[in-house]
């Protein structure tokens, strides 16, 4: 049985999925997380010196935004601490490119409820995990924008909000 905490690795979907992840990273001008996810990422990725995936290099250089009412010194540059959804809304209105949010389920729920998510990029792995928290807490009107499948069985589904 696969446990929820140990089923995913960045290259688990094969080189094609890794290439798609790299493409997603290249398109993003900002990386948004909640405090818990940020602290988990900060404790691991900056120390990865032999990372063939490119994720460490990306996370070390991308403009990071952390939504937290308690974090004072992020300790990982370049990082800006945002104090709430109003700050996220202002950021969304000013940043020219894409802002991605990974993990951070509590923050993601707040972003969805506030109407701040324009697009969902879902990498679906052929692994059933019977635990965890839902992404959607209520029905969302979405339109499928694109769908890609990879030899490993992973699928990338991109949905856009339908207003």
From TrEMBL:
This is Dihydrofolate reductase family protein. InterPro entries: DHFR-like_dom_sf (IPR024072), RibDG_C (IPR002734). Coiled coil: none annotated. The lineage of its organism: Bacteria, Bacillati, Actinomycetota, Actinomycetes, Propionibacteriales. Residues 14-150 form the Bacterial bifunctional deaminase-reductase C-terminal domain. Pfam families: RibD_C (PF01872).
